[in-house]
Amino acid sequence: MADGGTLFLDEVGTMPAAIQPKLLRVLEDGFIRPLGAKTDRKVDVRIVSATNEPAGALREDLYYRLARFTVTAPPLRDRKDDIPLLAVHFMQMFAEEMGIAPPGLGTDALDALSHHNYPGNVRELKNVIERAMIESGGQEISPPHLRLSIGGGVAASSPDGELRLEDIPLDFAEAEALLIQRALDRAAGNVTQAAKLLGIDRNKVYRIQAKSGFRLRMAGLHATP
Asked: How many CB atoms lie within 10 A of CB 51?
Protein backbone atom coordinates (compact mmCIF):
# COMPACT_ATOMS: atom_id res chain seq x y z
CA MET A 1 0.00 0.00 0.00
CA ALA A 2 2.91 2.35 0.68
CA ASP A 3 4.56 1.68 -2.68
CA GLY A 4 5.68 5.02 -4.09
CA GLY A 5 5.24 6.72 -0.74
CA THR A 6 6.28 6.61 2.91
CA LEU A 7 5.78 3.92 5.56
CA PHE A 8 6.01 5.08 9.17
CA LEU A 9 7.04 2.47 11.75
CA ASP A 10 6.25 3.64 15.26
CA GLU A 11 7.93 2.11 18.33
CA VAL A 12 10.33 0.26 16.04
CA GLY A 13 12.49 -0.60 19.06
CA THR A 14 9.87 -3.11 20.19
CA MET A 15 9.67 -4.95 16.86
CA PRO A 16 9.57 -8.74 17.40
CA ALA A 17 12.80 -10.51 16.49
CA ALA A 18 11.01 -12.78 14.01
CA ILE A 19 9.92 -9.83 11.87
CA GLN A 20 13.25 -8.02 11.77
CA PRO A 21 14.96 -10.20 9.11
CA LYS A 22 11.94 -9.79 6.84
CA LEU A 23 12.05 -6.01 7.12
CA LEU A 24 15.81 -6.04 6.59
CA ARG A 25 15.35 -8.07 3.39
CA VAL A 26 12.87 -5.53 2.04
CA LEU A 27 15.21 -2.67 2.87
CA GLU A 28 18.10 -4.46 1.21
CA ASP A 29 16.52 -5.50 -2.09
CA GLY A 30 13.15 -3.71 -2.25
CA PHE A 31 11.12 -6.87 -2.87
CA ILE A 32 8.10 -8.15 -0.97
CA ARG A 33 5.82 -11.13 -1.38
CA PRO A 34 2.18 -10.26 -0.63
CA LEU A 35 0.25 -12.75 1.45
CA GLY A 36 -0.97 -15.57 -0.80
CA ALA A 37 1.21 -14.55 -3.75
CA LYS A 38 3.67 -16.88 -5.46
CA THR A 39 6.06 -14.27 -6.79
CA ASP A 40 7.90 -11.29 -5.35
CA ARG A 41 6.97 -7.73 -6.15
CA LYS A 42 9.30 -4.73 -6.39
CA VAL A 43 8.34 -1.76 -4.20
CA ASP A 44 9.77 1.71 -3.73
CA VAL A 45 9.04 2.83 -0.17
CA ARG A 46 10.65 5.42 2.06
CA ILE A 47 10.87 4.16 5.66
CA VAL A 48 10.53 6.55 8.58
CA SER A 49 10.79 4.97 12.02
CA ALA A 50 10.52 6.24 15.58
CA THR A 51 11.07 4.94 19.08
CA ASN A 52 11.08 6.38 22.58
CA GLU A 53 12.94 3.37 23.94
CA PRO A 54 16.54 2.22 23.42
CA ALA A 55 16.79 0.35 20.13
CA GLY A 56 18.94 -2.37 21.71
CA ALA A 57 16.40 -5.05 20.81
CA LEU A 58 16.96 -4.40 17.10
CA ARG A 59 19.44 -6.40 15.06
CA GLU A 60 22.56 -4.32 14.54
CA ASP A 61 22.36 -4.59 10.75
CA LEU A 62 18.71 -3.52 10.77
CA TYR A 63 19.42 -0.62 13.10
CA TYR A 64 22.13 0.80 10.86
CA ARG A 65 19.90 0.29 7.81
CA LEU A 66 17.16 2.35 9.46
CA ALA A 67 19.47 4.92 11.04
CA ARG A 68 20.84 6.43 7.83
CA PHE A 69 19.59 9.82 8.97
CA THR A 70 18.54 10.34 12.56
CA VAL A 71 16.63 13.12 14.29
CA THR A 72 16.51 13.32 18.07
CA ALA A 73 13.34 14.99 19.33
CA PRO A 74 13.84 16.61 22.74
CA PRO A 75 11.32 15.59 25.42
CA LEU A 76 8.34 17.86 25.99
CA ARG A 77 9.70 18.99 29.36
CA ASP A 78 12.61 20.60 27.47
CA ARG A 79 10.37 22.50 25.05
CA LYS A 80 7.66 23.95 27.24
CA ASP A 81 6.92 26.67 24.67
CA ASP A 82 5.27 23.98 22.53
CA ILE A 83 2.72 23.07 25.21
CA PRO A 84 0.14 25.83 24.44
CA LEU A 85 0.24 25.04 20.70
CA LEU A 86 -0.06 21.29 21.28
CA ALA A 87 -2.85 21.74 23.84
CA VAL A 88 -4.91 23.83 21.42
CA HIS A 89 -4.26 21.31 18.64
CA PHE A 90 -5.45 18.38 20.76
CA MET A 91 -8.51 20.31 21.96
CA GLN A 92 -9.51 21.04 18.38
CA MET A 93 -8.94 17.41 17.38
CA PHE A 94 -11.01 15.95 20.23
CA ALA A 95 -13.70 18.60 19.87
CA GLU A 96 -14.19 17.49 16.27
CA GLU A 97 -14.50 13.87 17.41
CA MET A 98 -17.03 14.87 20.08
CA GLY A 99 -18.99 17.13 17.77
CA ILE A 100 -18.62 20.19 19.99
CA ALA A 101 -16.91 23.57 19.81
CA PRO A 102 -13.33 23.59 21.18
CA PRO A 103 -13.46 24.64 24.85
CA GLY A 104 -11.40 27.43 26.30
CA LEU A 105 -8.26 26.80 28.32
CA GLY A 106 -8.07 28.83 31.50
CA THR A 107 -4.88 30.70 32.41
CA ASP A 108 -4.43 28.62 35.57
CA ALA A 109 -4.91 25.40 33.58
CA LEU A 110 -2.33 26.46 31.01
CA ASP A 111 0.06 27.35 33.83
CA ALA A 112 -0.45 23.89 35.37
CA LEU A 113 0.19 22.22 32.03
CA SER A 114 3.35 24.27 31.52
CA HIS A 115 4.80 23.27 34.90
CA HIS A 116 4.11 19.54 34.54
CA ASN A 117 7.10 17.25 33.93
CA TYR A 118 5.51 14.91 31.32
CA PRO A 119 7.32 11.61 31.81
CA GLY A 120 4.99 10.30 29.10
CA ASN A 121 6.02 13.07 26.69
CA VAL A 122 3.55 14.38 24.06
CA ARG A 123 1.35 11.27 24.39
CA GLU A 124 0.77 12.16 28.03
CA LEU A 125 -0.26 15.73 27.16
CA LYS A 126 -2.68 14.35 24.57
CA ASN A 127 -4.16 11.99 27.15
CA VAL A 128 -4.46 14.78 29.73
CA ILE A 129 -6.28 17.07 27.29
CA GLU A 130 -8.74 14.35 26.26
CA ARG A 131 -9.51 13.56 29.90
CA ALA A 132 -9.89 17.25 30.72
CA MET A 133 -12.44 17.72 27.93
CA ILE A 134 -14.46 14.80 29.25
CA GLU A 135 -14.24 16.15 32.81
CA SER A 136 -15.22 19.67 31.80
CA GLY A 137 -18.23 18.58 29.75
CA GLY A 138 -17.17 20.89 26.94
CA GLN A 139 -16.81 23.95 29.17
CA GLU A 140 -13.62 25.92 29.79
CA ILE A 141 -10.86 23.68 31.13
CA SER A 142 -9.58 24.52 34.60
CA PRO A 143 -6.86 22.88 36.76
CA PRO A 144 -9.20 20.34 38.48
CA HIS A 145 -10.15 18.96 35.06
CA LEU A 146 -6.51 18.17 34.29
CA ARG A 147 -6.13 15.76 37.22
CA LEU A 148 -2.33 15.97 37.19
CA SER A 149 -0.69 13.96 39.94
CA ILE A 150 2.35 14.87 42.03
CA GLY A 151 4.22 11.91 40.59
CA GLY A 152 4.00 13.35 37.11
CA GLY A 153 1.37 11.04 35.67
CA VAL A 154 -2.39 11.29 35.32
CA ALA A 155 -4.48 10.93 38.43
CA ALA A 156 -6.63 7.89 38.99
CA SER A 157 -9.94 7.58 37.20
CA SER A 158 -12.34 8.07 40.09
CA PRO A 159 -12.33 11.14 42.37
CA ASP A 160 -11.01 9.18 45.39
CA GLY A 161 -8.34 7.46 43.33
CA GLU A 162 -9.98 4.02 43.35
CA LEU A 163 -12.11 2.15 40.85
CA ARG A 164 -15.24 0.95 42.62
CA LEU A 165 -17.07 -2.20 41.59
CA GLU A 166 -20.28 -0.27 40.97
CA ASP A 167 -18.39 2.02 38.58
CA ILE A 168 -17.50 -0.82 36.21
CA PRO A 169 -19.90 -0.95 33.22
CA LEU A 170 -21.85 -4.17 32.85
CA ASP A 171 -21.27 -4.10 29.11
CA PHE A 172 -18.14 -6.20 28.49
CA ALA A 173 -16.86 -4.04 25.63
CA GLU A 174 -17.20 -0.88 27.73
CA ALA A 175 -15.50 -2.53 30.72
CA GLU A 176 -12.67 -3.71 28.47
CA ALA A 177 -12.24 -0.22 27.03
CA LEU A 178 -12.25 1.25 30.55
CA LEU A 179 -9.54 -1.18 31.67
CA ILE A 180 -7.42 -0.25 28.67
CA GLN A 181 -7.88 3.44 29.46
CA ARG A 182 -6.85 2.98 33.11
CA ALA A 183 -3.71 1.16 32.00
CA LEU A 184 -2.93 3.98 29.54
CA ASP A 185 -3.48 6.52 32.31
CA ARG A 186 -1.07 4.69 34.59
CA ALA A 187 1.46 4.40 31.75
CA ALA A 188 1.10 8.11 30.91
CA GLY A 189 -0.29 7.25 27.48
CA ASN A 190 2.51 4.83 26.53
CA VAL A 191 0.82 1.94 24.72
CA THR A 192 3.75 -0.43 25.15
CA GLN A 193 3.87 0.10 28.91
CA ALA A 194 0.08 -0.16 29.20
CA ALA A 195 0.18 -3.50 27.38
CA LYS A 196 2.85 -4.74 29.79
CA LEU A 197 0.72 -3.72 32.77
CA LEU A 198 -2.21 -5.70 31.35
CA GLY A 199 -0.10 -8.65 30.24
CA ILE A 200 -1.34 -8.41 26.64
CA ASP A 201 0.13 -7.62 23.25
CA ARG A 202 0.33 -3.92 22.43
CA ASN A 203 -1.54 -4.56 19.17
CA LYS A 204 -4.54 -5.66 21.22
CA VAL A 205 -4.50 -2.29 22.96
CA TYR A 206 -4.66 -0.59 19.56
CA ARG A 207 -7.46 -2.90 18.40
CA ILE A 208 -9.56 -2.26 21.50
CA GLN A 209 -8.99 1.48 21.18
CA ALA A 210 -10.05 1.42 17.55
CA LYS A 211 -13.06 -0.78 18.27
CA SER A 212 -14.28 1.09 21.33
CA GLY A 213 -13.79 4.59 19.99
CA PHE A 214 -14.45 7.80 21.86
CA ARG A 215 -18.13 7.13 22.57
CA LEU A 216 -17.41 4.08 24.72
CA ARG A 217 -14.95 6.08 26.74
CA MET A 218 -17.60 8.72 27.31
CA ALA A 219 -19.85 5.97 28.69
CA GLY A 220 -17.35 5.07 31.45
CA LEU A 221 -16.53 6.86 34.68
CA HIS A 222 -16.36 10.25 33.01
CA ALA A 223 -19.77 10.26 31.33
CA THR A 224 -21.31 13.72 31.24
CA PRO A 225 -25.01 14.67 30.95
From this structure: 17
